[in-house]
């Protein structure tokens, strides 16, 4: 199973910049998208125009036009789909979608999530923390019977200083708060999830997955690693390769994020 996750920063803008051509060339078995920023009909049209119209699409558009939105694309019809993460306040937020695909020993649950940006010491940060609480509860449920599950997406959290070039300058800011990082610690320690990218790559700094459009952040590789694949232990043990699709040059970027592709030694279908 090749799984590619990408924050597209607006699916229509990404398509105009060649993003769908890039995604199609990865030959993935499953694609997860974040910040789609499109209604279901708009997403379907863009995918069809971009040569991905024959995929099975499960999406959760954001409640506000032009914001959020996540999707999972599979080559095979999904066994189960859900956009329910639990709390009612997130029911139409466009930040969570999960799909079960058929694996050799049972279903494999693939999740696409887009976590709030947050802002320290504000209600928006409180909302982010409540969402992370809900994510942790759902992840615990999914691995109760040693199931195969993987959480992909833009978490808007750098887990450690290895994940943020200017970590000193961002101390105390949302995205690099100890209370945010503690959630990722719990997923790993209590629920046995593995940060597959970091496990395969080894210590940092980087590789980063997000750079501001402004200034020389991309050219200087002054980035953040905020896009992840957290796999349950049984699935993580089958991961063989992780690669960040960083553009070769600034003018070749099709999103402010770079996609993360992981290969797992498991056959779907």
Molecular structure report:
The record marks 257 as: Interaction with DNA substrate. Its cofactor is Mg(2+); Mn(2+). It comes from Knoellia locipacati. The active site is at residues 114, 154, 257. The chain is α+β, with helices and mostly antiparallel strands. The protein has one domain (2-264): Deoxyribonuclease I, Chain A (4-Layer Sandwich). It has helices at 11-16, 19-24, 40-49, 123-142, 178-189, 196-201, 233-236, and strands spanning 2-7, 30-34, 56-60, 70-74, 80-82, 96-103, 106-114, 148-154, 193-195, 227-232, 239-244, 260-264. The protein has a 6-stranded mixed β-sheet. It has a 6-stranded mixed β-sheet with strand order 5-6-7-8-10-9. Helix 4 runs parallel beside helix 5. It is globular.
Question: What's the short story on this structure?
Answer:
The protein has 269 residues and is an alpha+beta fold.
SSE layout and pairings?
Layout: E1 2-7, H1 11-16, H2 19-24, E2 30-34, H3 40-49, E3 56-60, E4 70-74, E5 80-82, E6 96-103, E7 106-114, H4 123-142, E8 148-154, H5 178-189, E9 193-195, H6 196-201, E10 227-232, H7 233-236, E11 239-244, E12 260-264
Parallel strand pairs: 1-2, 7-8
Antiparallel strand pairs: 1-12, 2-4, 3-4, 5-6, 6-7, 8-10, 9-10, 11-12
Helix pairs in contact: 4-5
């Amino acid at each position: 199973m090749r799984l590619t996750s990408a924050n597209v920063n607006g699916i229509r803008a990404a398509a105009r910049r060649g993003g769908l051509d890039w995604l199609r060339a990865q030959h993935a078995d499953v694609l997860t998208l974040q910040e789609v920023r499109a209604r279901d009909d708009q997403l379907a049209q863009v995918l069809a125009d971009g040569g991905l119209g024959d995929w099975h699409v499960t999406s959760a558009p954001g409640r506000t036009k032009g914001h959020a939105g996540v999707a999972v694309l599979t080559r095979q019809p999904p066994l189960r789909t859900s956009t329910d993460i639990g709390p009612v306040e997130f029911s139409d937020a466009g930040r969570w979608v999960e799909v079960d695909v058929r694996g050799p020993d049972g279903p494999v649950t693939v999740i696409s999530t887009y976590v709030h940006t947050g802002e320290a010491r504000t209600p928006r940060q409180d909302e982010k923390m409540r969402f992370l609480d809900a994510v942790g509860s759902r992840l615990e449920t999914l691995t109760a019977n040693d199931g195969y599950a993987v959480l992909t997406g833009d978490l808007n959290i750098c887990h450690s200083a290895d994940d943020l070039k200017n970590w000193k300058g961002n101390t105390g800011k949302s995205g690099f708060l100890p209370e945010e990082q503690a959630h990722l610690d719990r997923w790993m320690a209590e629920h046995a999830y593995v940060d597959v990218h970091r496990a395969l790559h080894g210590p940092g700094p980087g590789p980063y997955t997000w750079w501001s459009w402004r200034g020389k952040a991309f050219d200087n590789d002054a980035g953040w690693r905020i896009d992840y694949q957290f796999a349950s232990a049984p699935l993580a043990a089958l991961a063989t390769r992780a690669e960040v699709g960083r553009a070769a040059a600034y003018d070749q970027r099709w999103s402010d994020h770079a996609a993360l592709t992981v290969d797992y030694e498991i056959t779907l279908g």
